[in-house]
Backbone:
């Protein structure tokens, strides 16, 4: 008979040891669903702390199915939940940045709050997800890119799927997804849909040993840098420990209306991504260039925004990013 563990009272912030024990019990199936729902909802209502974020991520990492990756690999991933239903910016950024020579271990999943998540769009582009999963380490080594399907690498989350659906709102597990990369990357561009939460999130990453990261949030809010207006950024580690604000003009880009990035289903988003990689100008390209520049700065491949934009644009304009996608699909 499974032991039913008791969770602590989540109305007040938890210390590291208590939080780790609580998340361990949940992920190991030792807690009743109603108790999990109360715990997660209570924590979300008061806002999770950096200690709790780090503790939850550490327990999820301890149970993940890992993959090996080059030491300089990065990830570009967002928490989701911004409700923007936009085109797949981070997925496109992963391809462009990899075409710039930076290995990208792209962590992602199917859509939760949008019509097409990274997995859905890559599948519509022709990527065989099962084959890509089986050859992830090889494609990282040979092509410099891999897709790490969250549901395959985090089986412990499967135990919580039903209760998370029943809760019907974001919980701490939405926040820790981007920081539980199966390749163990320590350099990341992380989009967070709450500008007021960036500093807390950054401290969580610091506790987990992240060496270089940007936590970014568009003012709309968006879980990425906005091509429509200002964005907030918290830098961590090698790319600078500071907070800043940025607008597209700082990177030499013009602003576009937010609805110019409106996405659709997987087929719609995949077609838009292909057109962009083949040279189509517009809001999608500029959003990818802006966020790509951030990833290149995190990776130490660009010193400033304009240089990063130039490098990303070159990877597109020379056909390198589009060719990489073709090679990845055929790999």
Residues:
């Amino acid at each position: 008979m499974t032991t039913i563990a008791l969770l602590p009272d989540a109305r007040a912030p938890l210390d590291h040891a208590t939080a780790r024990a609580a998340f361990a019990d949940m992920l190991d199936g030792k807690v009743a669903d109603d108790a999990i729902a109360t715990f997660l909802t209570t924590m979300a209502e008061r806002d999770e702390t950096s200690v709790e974020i780090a503790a939850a991520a550490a327990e999820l990492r301890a149970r993940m199915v890992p993959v090996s990756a080059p030491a300089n690999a990065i990830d570009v991933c967002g928490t989701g939940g911004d409700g923007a239903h936009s085109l797949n910016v981070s997925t496109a950024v992963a391809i462009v940045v990899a075409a710039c020579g930076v290995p990208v271990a792209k962590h992602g999943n199917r859509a939760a709050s949008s019509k097409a998540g990274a997995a859905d769009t890559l599948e519509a582009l022709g990527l065989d997800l099962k084959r890509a999963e089986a050859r992830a380490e090889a494609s990282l080594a040979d092509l410099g890119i891999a897709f790490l399907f969250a549901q395959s690498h985090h089986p412990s989350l499967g135990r919580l799927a039903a209760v998370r659906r029943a809760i019907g709102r974001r919980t701490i597990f939405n926040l820790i997804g981007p920081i539980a990369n199966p390749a163990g990357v320590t350099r990341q561009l992380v989009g967070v849909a709450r500008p007021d939460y960036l500093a807390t999130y950054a401290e969580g990453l610091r506790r987990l040993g992240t060496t270089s990261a940007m936590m970014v949030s568009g003012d709309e809010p968006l879980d990425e840098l906005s091509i429509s207006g200002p964005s907030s950024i918290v830098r961590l580690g090698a790319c600078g420990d500071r907070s800043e604000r940025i607008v597209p003009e700082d990177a030499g880009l013009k602003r576009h209306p937010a609805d110019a990035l409106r996405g659709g289903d997987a087929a719609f988003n995949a077609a838009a991504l292909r057109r962009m990689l083949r040279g189509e100008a517009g809001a999608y390209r500029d959003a990818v260039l802006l966020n790509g520049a951030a990833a290149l700065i995190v990776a130490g491949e660009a010193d400033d925004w304009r240089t990063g934009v130039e490098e990303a644009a070159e990877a597109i304009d020379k056909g390198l990013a589009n060719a990489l996608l073709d090679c990845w699909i055929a790999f």
